[in-house]
Amino acid sequence: MKKILTLLLVISSLYLTSCSSDDDNSSGNEYPKTVNIKYDITTTQYTDAVVTRTLDNDTQTENFDSFPYSYTYVQQEVNQGTYLKLTFMHNLAQTGGVDDYEAELKIYCWKRSC
């Protein structure tokens, strides 16, 4: 009986040891990653605006008089906690006033290229 228990214990430990190397560590949490990042802005009316986009410490500011707006970083290397920001500010100096309208700002991030 002791031999059978010992044999079962040895087989069990070999099974657990052999399966531990099969663990799937590709959960997508490894950094840095290479991704595509897309910034989009749509508005319900033609408007002049100042658009600012930020990727970590790199901030770009541009004046636009035509929307929709779109900008894509292709195959950008990012680390965990990468800072992304998109701002839209209506340019009152150009238009003299504001009618009601909606602006939708979106930031997309995906791993594979299209």
Parts with pLDDT < 50 across at least 5 consecutive residues: 16-23
Q: Percent range for helical residues? A: 10-25%
Q: Helical segment tally? A: 2
Beta-strand percentage range: 35-45%
Distance between the termini: 62 Å
Strand runs, count: 6
- Give the averaged pLDDT, no decimals: 79
Strand and helix order: HEEEEEHE
Rg measurement, Å: 26 Å
Main sheet attributes: strand count, strand direction, barrel closure = 3 strands, antiparallel
What global shape is seen?
Answer: elongated
If strands are numbered along the chain, what order do they take across the biggest sheet? Answer: 4-1-6
Structural class: alpha+beta
Describe the structure.
The protein has helices spanning 2-20, 92-95; strands at 33-43, 49-55, 58-64, 69-78, 84-90, 103-110. The protein is of the alpha+beta class and 114 residues long. Strand 2 (49-55) and strand 3 (58-64) form a beta hairpin. A 3-stranded antiparallel β-sheet has the order 4-1-6, with no helix packed on it. Strands 3-2-5 form a 3-stranded antiparallel β-sheet, with no helix packed on it. Residues 16-23 have low confidence and may be disordered. The protein is elongated and about 80 Å long. The protein contains 2 helices and 6 strands, in the order αβββββαβ.
